[in-house]
Amino acid sequence: MMLHSIAKHIPALTVAIPLLTAFSVPVVGRFNVKLRNILVVLGTVLTSAAGLFLAYLVFTQGSLTYAFGAVSPELTVPPDSGGIPIRIIFSIDAFSAFMVLIVSIVGMVSTLYSLSSEKMRTGQDGFFSLLLLLITGVIGMVSTGDLFNLFVFLEIASLSGAALVAYRIDKGIAVEAGLKYAMISTTAGLFVLLAVGIFYSQYGSLNMAVIADKIQFTQLDMFALVFLIVPMAMKCGSVPMHLWTPDAYSRAPAGVTAFLVVSSQASLYVLFRVCFSLFNITMNTQVFGWIVIIFGVLSMFVGVTMALPQKTVKRLMSYHAVSQTGYMLLGVGVGLATLGNPEALNAYGKTAMVGGVFHIINHALYKGLLFLTAGAVIYATGKRNLNELGGLGHTMKYTMVFFLVGAFAIAGMPPFNGYASKFMIYESVFKFNPLLAIVAIIVSILTLASFMKVFHSMFMGPKLPSVGEVREVPKPMLVSMGVLAVLVVLGGLFPDIIIKSVIEPAVNALLAQGDYIGMVLGGQ
């Protein structure tokens, strides 16, 4: 009975638990630090458990809708509303559940890592409140079925993310990075709000299913599409709107950076949701598919070439994050370009989408792992510059192994998870346009070269006097990195299981615009 009640309200709980914990942490922290840490752990574990349970329900029983304030949460359209959903509604299909799954895993690991890495720092009450608010915002972004609430959750994620980037001040450098992130986020939010206004003025509703059902792709709709695609491409760090990414990722604490990657992927989720679930074939999918592909190729190539000359480890990894986002845009972009051609979609477009969506979770795991290893090196040595590091493999053996796992995965080496998704992208994109696949393979080779340089600089050779006596990082940090490393390896060893049970349902949900509309309006 109790489990049934929890299952009934699980979409609301995934947001309510981190939100309530975020506001409780400063209050409890004023009286007892240990109790505050227990509250943070409890709130994070419960949030992740709720997210995983939600994903399990969606993948095993089908999509869920949740109408806040309704007599029954499933009652999305009240009888006296004229057929229009009027409440705040969460619409969670397999693609949303896929994103909630990522947030649940990386959110828990990032928070547990931060509890140890930030232990000696001041201001932990505010830090963990902001981190939990960031988790709340991202879960809301990928769960809501309402455009205005998408804007609200986007703002929650953006403001808390900007504050976390600037939180450690770092002689003003982190503050500058935080301000850049805030400016980019505010600009993106303004454009999203303009799109919301355009849709409401035309269709009298903010619910995405209602708009998708009525959309005509008028000139105003075209403006709204641009007002949504451009800011989301900017927020996910796509070239040429990526300039905030190296500053924000490199200056945020490592645990925050690992989750900022997921926050950026939530923007990618919105971009894909808008293209497939909102507009679908009402727009010229071939033209907009190629626009997404061009964003992807530019991100891959510019990201990796900018990474090669970098001297600081987290900044180098930040540019690689830009490059990896390109693979996701490329894969899903090919799917979008072939959406109007069922033969091409079935021949290679859908496989490219599966590869692109699979790369989202793989990237969240291995890039999160790499940022945590970089944070461990900075924690142990106090240094970021690769020229000042060396010989750490003698004393930081576990961190070195975890770094290698992440490095091989990001370079697409078997048997790690990056290989599985990248190979699907190479193979399917080659059938679409061989030149694009060749660029993707070259970028992977450059990525491997770049990370081998980092590996040699940080871990190989004799100990350098400049780093002094170095010890391995505390066990909670090792456990956090170990969890991600194990998942990276499992994703590479058993890709078929993940693809069949999680990735393909997510892609099918993204392609099925009619099901997305029926999920909400079918509840009348």
Explain this structure to me?
The chain has 20 helices and two strands. The protein has 524 residues and is mainly α. Strands 1-2 form a two-stranded antiparallel ribbon.
The residue-averaged pLDDT reads: 93
- Distance from N terminus to C terminus (CA atoms, Å) equals 26 Å
Q: Report Rg.
A: 22 Å
What are the low-pLDDT stretches, counting only 5+ consecutive residues below 50?
none
Biggest sheet: strands, sense, closure? 2 strands, antiparallel
| SSE pattern | HHHEEHHHHHHHHHHHHHHHHH
User: What class would the helix/strand composition place it in?
Assistant: mainly alpha
Beta-strand portion reads under 5%
Notable features of this structure?
two-stranded antiparallel ribbon, about 0% strand, about 525 residues, 20 helices
What can be said about this structure in brief?
The chain is mainly alpha-helical and 524 residues long. Helices cover 76% and strands 2% of the residues.
Tell me the layout of helices and strands:
Elements: H1 2-8, H2 10-29, H3 33-61, E1 64-67, E2 89-92, H4 94-117, H5 124-143, H6 147-166, H7 173-203, H8 208-214, H9 219-235, H10 244-251, H11 254-279, H12 285-307, H13 313-337, H14 342-381, H15 397-410, H16 417-432, H17 434-459, H18 475-493, H19 495-511, H20 513-521
Helix pairs in contact: 2-3, 2-5, 3-4, 4-5, 4-11, 4-14, 4-18, 4-19, 5-6, 5-11, 6-7, 6-11, 7-9, 7-10, 8-20, 9-11, 10-11, 10-13, 11-13, 11-14, 12-13, 12-17, 13-14, 13-16, 13-17, 14-15, 14-16, 14-18, 14-19, 15-17, 15-18, 16-17, 16-18
